[in-house]
Amino acid sequence: MVGVLVSMFPFYWTIVMATNTSQDISKYPPKLTFGSHLFENIDRLLNSIDFFGSMLNTVIVAVSTTLLVVFLDSLAAFAFAKYEFPGRRLLFGMLLGIFMLPLQLAIIPQYLIMAELGWLGSLKAVVLPATANAFGIFWMRQYMIGAIHDELLDAARMDGCGFFRQYWHVGLPTVRPGLAFLAIYAFVTSWNDYVWPLVALVNPDQVTLQVALSQLNVSHGRQDYAMVMAGVLLAVLPLVLVFSLFARSFIADASKGAVRE
């Protein structure tokens, strides 16, 4: 319970700052109770940036990325986990090597590729580079090794199922808890991504939510922290909703699997 309270305090503090004024935030000792200025802060926020337009862009990017990541990563992981093919160990070793590289190293190559394709400034430039990632493949591969029994695949082959039907009808229903975790991870990562959308989206009308919120920061002058935290609070709420939906599915499926075992 102590750990839960500690981890929840930043979210509580975000709500406190979003409902008070910047003057209240600057007081010492700090004010730890909710205020009554939330709607005033939200009104200033909506007048400062195109909040809902940038949120729509972020929803499109996050949902598209999550669907593609779940499909492509699980498909590649199924091949690595349950099929023998030439070069499998070498390819998986290369995958682990990519997994250990910092994501920032890919910015320049990705930028050059997107520029060559003519996609800079469009949401495609943000979605496509994130459609498959090394962590997702590694995670699903490790999960599938123990979750999908070879006897099920042998029975499917005897019934005439090819690779894709085995993946779709045997593999995916068995690893739903792992897919739920991957979906949460991919959605949160895409929603919170800031560096690559800042580089790739040169059109102001196509910016994502994190980039739009960064425009509220000022280099000189007085910072309106209450308005910024109101934007942060609104940006966090969809993540809480997605986590609640997928986490419930994750726990339910994991419990059913434990009972069957």
From TrEMBL:
GO term, biological process aspect, one: transmembrane transport
Keywords: Cell membrane, Membrane, Transmembrane, Transmembrane helix, Transport
PANTHER family: ABC TRANSPORTER PERMEASE PROTEIN MG189-RELATED (PTHR43744:SF12), ABC TRANSPORTER PERMEASE PROTEIN MG189-RELATED-RELATED (PTHR43744)
InterPro entries: MetI-like, MetI-like_sf
Recorded GO CC terms: plasma membrane
ABC transmembrane type-1 domain: residues covered: 55-246
Family indicated by similarity: Belongs to the binding-protein-dependent transport system permease family.
SUPFAM superfamilies: MetI-like
Membrane topology: Multi-pass membrane protein
Transmembrane segments: 55-78, 90-113, 119-139, 167-188, 225-247
Organism whose genome encodes this protein: Streptomyces sporangiiformans
UniProt entry tagged with the keyword Membrane: yes
Protein name: Carbohydrate ABC transporter permease
